Amino acid sequence: SSGINAEWPLRPGYRQSRKMKVFVILIGVFSAVSAANTNKCKEMTDGSLSDKVCHGDSTVTHCTSPVFAEYGGMSSQAYGCGECPADSTATCAQCVAEAETGCNVKVAAPADAQTFECFDYSLVKEALVASKIATICHAEKATAIACNKPGSAAVAKTYSVANKGCGPCSEAAKKDKTCFDCPTDKCNSASTLAFVLAPLLAVIFHVL
């Protein structure tokens, strides 16, 4: 018969030899994958940066790190493997990954950076209300102190306070009166506008 005899005896050690070949092939595949994933990036663990191999993706060619931004301070971008999201240059920095060590070294605020305080605003019962505790703002030494708050034309339900109250308004926002800014520490409290309006109202009533 030309068919294969199912009862034909296998040569001694055939099964063991076959298993060994499969095992060797698997080791080869694993080694190839491991070799392709040798790029390292630094990751933050318990406040400390350390090198981590970018496992799981042989195409990882970049590492990410946060950015120090005027008024906003250090961004929330994590240290790690991969590329920055699109349109995120203000909050994320990336570098070319290497096999020896992670290129995304620790980012620190400028040594002479200054801090000041401004109030954030949030929507409470359809009204924008100032926070009770001021936000700590960060800026370079030569940067002018500035805080911002909702302007007289701001729509409470749709208004978004810039940088949690830190920094100036955009020129467009000032022009359409949706944002008000001021140049001193904690100057954007809820009472600021009242202090500005009180003398004006006194003059009006005196004239009337």
Structural notes for this entry:
By secondary structure, the chain is α+β, with helices and mostly antiparallel strands. The chain has three helices and 13 strands; from the N terminus they run αββββββββββββαβα. The chain has helices at 14-36, 171-175, 192-207; strands at 40-45, 48-53, 62-66, 68-69, 73-74, 80-81, 92-96, 114-118, 121-124, 127-130, 135-139, 147-150, 179-182. Strands 6-3-7 form a three-stranded antiparallel β-sheet, with no helix packed on it. A two-stranded antiparallel ribbon has the order 1-2. It has a two-stranded antiparallel sheet with strand order 4-5. β4 (68-69) and β5 (73-74) form a beta hairpin. The protein is elongated and about 80 Å long.
The value of Rg in angstroms is 31 Å
Instruction: Note the beta-strand portion.
Output: 25-35%
Point out poorly predicted stretches: 28-35, 192-206
Number of strands: 13
The strand line-up of the biggest sheet is 6-3-7
Query: Which overall shape is indicated by the principal axes computed on the Cα atoms?
Result: elongated
* SS summary, helix count: 3
End-to-end Cα distance: 122 Å
Helix share bin: 10-25%
Order of helices and strands, N to C? HEEEEEEEEEEEEHEH
Helix/strand-derived class? alpha+beta
